[in-house]
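Standup notes
- DV: blocked on the single-chain target, sequence here:
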Amino acid sequence: MQIYWTPIQQVVQEARDTYTFKLELPGGFTWEEGAHTHFALEGFNQGDKPNRTLIRHMSISTLPHEGAIGITTRVKPECSTFKSMLRDMKIGDKVAIFKTYSNVPLKREGKNVYLLSSGVGIATFRPLVLAYSANREGVPHLHSLNVDSSQQYLFSDVFESTDTFTSEFVDSRPVYYEKVETLASDQDGLFYVVGSDDFLHETIATLRQNGVTPDQIMLDKHDFQFEDFLKA
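- DV (later): unblocked, structure below
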């Protein structure tokens, strides 16, 4: 396993308590849209076993051509040890990234794609929208639906509707699920879902109840985890 230790280049505040940590791009490191990585702080690999309190599974919110690895996350005043340490880090401090992989690249199968997310989960979809904007081949229409009760919607510059890309932001779960039911009427569409486990369970249940099949649902999960969500 290769571990890349790379410095923080910039910290961008996206909304209240939400930040993107932009990391220097190491030589030879690359990824595709929808990628996640293991993001770790100094000391995580000291000792016989990894210190899992210093490791998080994070989506990469940028693409390689942007010249930085973007990690977007919420850091609230009352937070975990990991988030507290991250908040106190300075420009130039190094973090580790390893085990980078994409479970949810943009499928170009001639089907409409629906991106369903909650809160900061929309960061996973930012690279998919950028990839689509650069090349629309194989995706007739792309639609994003994000629910966030804070109403501080992220990446509004990227999630701006065009002729072939539409974007909706809502501030309540009931409204969100009503819209999911409407979107599910596209019985040939592909539905990408990112958010908390509860959000995934409820969204998948809504999709399945409205005729969407398991092979139409994409999750940022390993295969064995995916099966568990479908059974729930």
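- Follow-up: The longest helix spans residues 122-134.
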